[in-house]
Design brief:
The complex is a heterodimer of chains A (275) and B (308). Chain A is an alpha/beta fold and 275 residues long. Chain A is 34% helix and 29% strand. Chain B is built from 9 helices and 4 strands. Classes of the chains: A alpha/beta (275), B mainly alpha (308).
Chain lengths: 275, 308
Amino acid sequence: MEDIICLEGISYSYYDKVAAVRDVNLTIREGERFSIIGANGSGKSTLLQIMNGLIHQTKGKYFFRGREISAQALKDKGFLRFFRERVGYVFQDSDVQLFCPTVLDELLYGPLQLEISEKEAQDRAFQVMQMLNIENLKNRPSYMLSGGEKKKVAIGSVLTMNPEVLLFDEPSNCLDPRTQCFLIELMFALNEAGKTLVIATHDLALIDDLHTQVALLSEEHTIEKIGDSEDILKDEELLLNVNLIHEHMHYNGPSIHKHRHSHYFFHKHQSSTSP
Amino acid sequence: MKNNVPPFLLAKPASYDYRQGQGKIKTSFLEKGIHHLADIIKTGYVQGETAALDNFFQKIDARIKVLFLLAFVIIVSLKKDILSEFLIGIFVALLVIISRLNLLSFYRRVLFLGFIFGFLISLPSACNVITRGEIILPILQLSKPYSFWIYRIPAEIGITREGIYGVAMLTLRVTNSLALSFFVLYTTTFPEIVKALKILRIADGFLMIITLSYKYIFIFARTVEDMHLAKKSRLAGQVSNAEARRWIAGRIAFIFKKTQLRCEEIFKAMLGRGFSEHVRIYGVGKLQPRDWAVSVVFSLMGILFLWI
C-alpha cells in the first residue's frame, strides 16, 4: 500500500501562544483505518484540520500523495480541486458543517463544486440518501434534524464528493447506540470500498471495534506512541498516563471498590473495601 | 452495508495527477472579512492574557482603573490646547510601557481607530466651507461665492489654519480616549471590569446585557469561523463575490435561528440556577495601600493636566 498522508515534524499553535500539536511525525497508507486518540485538548482536531488543509502548520511539512500541502500550494486552482476531491472532512459539530438550505442541497453542494454534471450529482445524492436511509429528509432544513440525522447528512455531504480519504472528527460523539452501530458498519463498508479512514476520537470502544492503526497523542500535544489498536488498548499504564482511562470508586453490590475505568473494557476488580 | 455502497463510491480517481496552470485562487473581500471576525477571538484571548499578567498596573484594583478612565476621558475632552493633549498622550504611553504591554500592537490598534474616527471624520472641517479662518492651502477657486439658506460657499476654497488646529485637536482627543480605554481593557480582566462597574452603581440590567453580549461575540465569532472552515473543506474553486454574499445571507438567517434557540436554552438554564434580575458579586476586597498610592498619583496628574 502506498503512503497517502505523511506528516513530518508538524507543530501548530493557536494565537501564536497556545501549542496544539508539537513535532508530530506520522504516515498513513492508502486504504488504512487510522485513528488519532488522545484526551480532550490534546490536538486531535487540529491535526485533522491540518490534514484537510484548512489550517496550516507553523512548523514541519505535510505531504499528500507525495505533494506538499501548504497555503501557497492550495492557491493553485488545479491543485485545490485535486486535493479537495480526494480528502473529505466530517466535522465534530454537524451544525457548523451543514450550511445549505435543505438536506438535498447539502448533498449536491460538494459535487457541483467539483464541476460534476448536475445529473450525476443528483444520482450521487439519491444513492447516498438511499444508503444512509435519509431519503425522507431530503427537503428538510438542517436545524429540523435530530443529532443522528445531522451526522448522517454531514457524512453524506462528504461522500457525494467521493473522496479517497475520509477524516472523521469525534464521529461517535452524542450519538445513540443504534446510530453508533450504524456508523461503525458504514465505516467498515467504506473502508472495504477502498477508502482510507482517519478518525480522531477518545472513544476507545470505537477504536476496538474498527481495529485501526493508532497514533496516541499525549496531553503535551506530542505523539506518545503509534501502533496497532490491540497493542495500545492493552497498555493500561500508557492509557492512564495520557488520561484516556482513569481510576474511580463505585459500589458493586454491598461493597465499594476502586478500579481503572474507561467506559470501554477495563472493568477489572482489583481490590474491594467494605463501605 | 457493503451491498448498499453506491457504485460511484467504489470508483477510484481517474488520475493521481492534476492539471496545472488553471490560475490562482484570489481571496475575496468577504473571506478576508470572515478572517478578521475570527481575529476577535484572538484579540479577546490576548486581552485576557495581558490583563492577567503579574505586572504593576494589572495588580491595581479595577475600581481605581475604571474611575481613572472616566476622569481622564473627561479631562481629555475638556482640554483645548494641543500641548496638553500631547502630554496626556505621553503619560498614557508611559503607563503602557510600565504595564509591559506590547507597545507596537497597542498603538497600531489605537492609531488605526484614531485615524478613522478622529482624523478622517473631522478632516472636512479643515476647509473654510466649515471652519472660517486664514487659508493656508488653497484648493479651489470659484468664479463667485454662493449662498444657500444658512450656508455660504466662498469663492476661494481651501484649508484654514483654524481648521487644521481643530482637526488636530479632535484627532488627539479621540486617540487619547482610545489609548486610555484600551489601556484599561488590556490591564483589567472583563469580570473585574463588570465587578467594578457594579460597585460604582451601574444598573444591573446594563451589566447583564454587556456580560451576555461579550460572551455572545465570542460564540458568534467561533461559529462563523467554524462554518467558514466547513465550507472551505468542500470548496474546490474560486467563489465569486455574488456567491459569497448569497452564502453569508443564508448563514445570517441560520445563525439567527440558531441564536434564538440558544437564547431560549440559556435563559432556561439561568432560571434553573435561580436567576434574578440582580447581579451578585463576590470577593470584593479592600483597597490596598498601592491602590491608594496610585489613585493619589492619578489625581495629582489629573489636576496637573487640568491646570496646564
